[in-house]
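Molecular record:
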Amino acid sequence: MKIKQSIDKVPGGLMVVPLLAGALLNTIDQLHIPFIMELLKGLGVAPTPDGNYEFLKIGGFTQALFKDGALTLCALFLFCAGSQMNLRVGGKALKKGVLLTTSKYLAGFLVGMAWGAMSDPVNGFLGLSTMAIIAAMTNGNGGMYAALTGQYGNRSDVGATAVLSLNDGPFFTLMALGLMGANFPLIAFIAVLLPILIGMILGNLDHEIRKFLAAGETLVIPFFAFALGAGMNLASFFNPEVVGAGIVLALMTVIFSGGAMVLTFKLFREKSYIAPWAEASTAGNAVATPAAIAAAASVAAGSGLMTAAEAQVYQDLVAVASAQISIATISTALLVPIAVILADKYQKNKGIDGKKESFKSEQKMKSNSDIEDAVI
């Protein structure tokens, strides 16, 4: 059976398919079908506080992994992702990475702030929250970026991946919400950033550790995706408002973040715009951001900088925001390759080959190569 190949055919499948599977099981659990509950009761499953019996609440390792493990697994993913952040980046790649990361972040931040100002930051137009917008728009699909720039871009485009990996996880969203007035304490930022930071330090100190942890960057994804789905109801994915909001979120991500990155490249006199369009996506791991923000809000409530009611707002947003971001992930995975292909055709008509570096960069790379050959 080619299960993995089938999953890979779905845009963002490694995240989305397990998420939907977890949501399906949880939806069945919440229906409290009598014969299923009788079966579970007969097996000796302990009842929930409201007297029901559920697949995902049978205790032991099963519940710890598939129902309650989302945050722990998400933290492990961030640790492994941090280990792959290479601090040794070439000058041209570093420049592009910084330009793309900064402009994508600012686009998401400004659109989220404007959306919240014009409607409601918690439940705005189409039910979109500021948190969902920023989480989706600031976190790009690194795998797709690498694949598209590898096919249509040049070496420095691909090299920028090392810097772009900084937007993995909830830190940028947390920072944006803090700038917009959410009263998160410093410890909440540290708690989110620390796994990434430790992983980054270890990965840069020892390449064998980086190699060892590389598998964790993809291995953990389906597990925390399933656990996230296990807290959602599948009905939310068939809610017209959620579907519509997810598609609008995808269009905003491609148009506004892609446009902002292209404009930034123009300002800094970059001729090829393959990289900006390749980064104009929503990453599958962005689906985990609402849960991580809710956890940070709990920390804030515990320290007294946020009321329990304010923290509960973030908890209540997790299910709907995760569903909206999931739809945006799938939609941008379909839209971004089209945008890159169109940009490539447009550039070639203008005499610009996206695979070639600028003249100065080519000369510098050739010079470096000659020096390396001489040393060898």
Summary: Residues 107 and 256 are 6 Å apart (CA to CA). Residues 67-368 form a domain with the Na+/H+ antiporter like fold fold (CATH 1.20.1530). The chain has 20 helices and no strands.
